From TrEMBL:
It comes from the Bacteria. It comes from Prochlorococcus marinus (strain SARG / CCMP1375 / SS120). The lineage of its organism: Bacteria, Bacillati, Cyanobacteriota, Cyanophyceae, Synechococcales. This is Na+-dependent transporter of the SNF family. InterPro entries: Na/ntran_symport, SNS_sf, YocR/YhdH-like. The chain crosses the membrane at residues 12-32, 38-59, 89-110, 130-158, 170-193, 217-238, 250-274, 280-299, 306-325, 345-365, 372-393, 420-438. One of its GO terms (cellular component) is membrane.
Amino acid sequence: MALREQWRSRWGFVLAAAGSAVGLGNLWGFAYRASEGGGAAFLLLYILIVLVVCLPVLVSEMVLGRSTGSSPLLAPVNAAGPRWSPMGWLFVIAPLGIGSYYAVLMGWTLDTLIHSIFFGLPSNLSEAETFFGSISSGSSVLLGQLISLLLTAIVVSAGVRGGIERLSRLGVPILFGLLLILALWAATLSGTWEGYRTFLLKLDASQFFNPSTIRNAFTQAFFSLSLGIGIMVAYSSYLDKKNQLPKEAVSVASIDTAVGLLAGMITFPIVMSFGLKEVISGSTVGTLFISLPTGLGTLGLTGRVVAILFFALAYIAAITSSISLLEVPVSSIMDRLGWGRSKAVFVSTGLLFVLGIPSALNLDVLGKMDSIFGGVLLILGGFLLSIFLGWVVPNRFDEDLAGCNSNHRVRRYLKFMLRWVSPPVIAFGLIVSVVDLFQN
Ligand code: PFF
């Protein structure tokens, strides 16, 4: 058997994992979920969930990948026997589901970038409707989806080091720099404080008990960290023993949360300064594809330059995420069927395209796919992972982390959280999310 590829360096892995985490979910999901009424309560819940629940699960997902050296499809079976193969299938099906509609959103992002460069942006809400219609319907959507999948496929077929690591090393720092610049620019707008206050700082304690706020916080935490569905299993299977996984997990979660906040600090001032508050609440995609282009469209040349930078960075962020979604089926096919990378990429990309067509043609389908694959399944996967590494194969967790010399107190803390805190808290989040999903 050919030797498994390895990351070139510690930072290569961290940037690739952060690249997967940072994506449209940070730029679009964070702002819209924060704007759904949760305000500071959403933000606090989100941060708490990341710290208390997601970090131990993130480490356990990484341990599963590294200790088995297997793809997400086979890792649970290789760790605990064939009874666990449904978990492996969940790890393949969920990324395929997300990858299918994610490419559609990438197509819209590309189309918005092209509009910002060549045709200009809407400058009032009625123009915005037409604009949104033009990027989200018609054959251009399928074209955008196809181009995005092809770009993703090119990177993934170049391999772990030559494709995924190389793009992430370049893309993630550029995107972080651009975000910082844009957040500083947004801080000079007239509605800045009003934007921060309304969406991020205003605390309404009753929101802690609102099922939709709870679901939003759980979904955002898991989606944004690409957690619970095998992405980190795939990426960590290319690691050697040197990486201290708890440290890497903290780096990934910090970069991801910082990007979500920075994106909010760009979006909310624009929304407030240009009176677009109504557009963003109640619309999943309104923030990124209606409010932002319209706000920037009213600002003349400056707005256009900002829009070009913002949508270019959104597209980079999206590609570093979509490559991770494609890597899961690709590595699983290579592992299970012994195919070469190019053939596995070709077949998986074709499958993603076909699966994405209903989302490309119908907004409601896209929304449903996002609620199920991008929400409930990730939380379910997180629950299974915490049971699996906390209870089913706990020695694997200890041995792997001992092998990379991570501090034994950190290890004990993580193990405790994984066994006793994550399962009940995630189960609670899952139940609230499912009930809320059916009610709304
Ligand atoms: N985390 C990515 C984002 O925030 O856009 C999207 C994503 C990638 C979600 C991979 C889930 C996943 F497994």
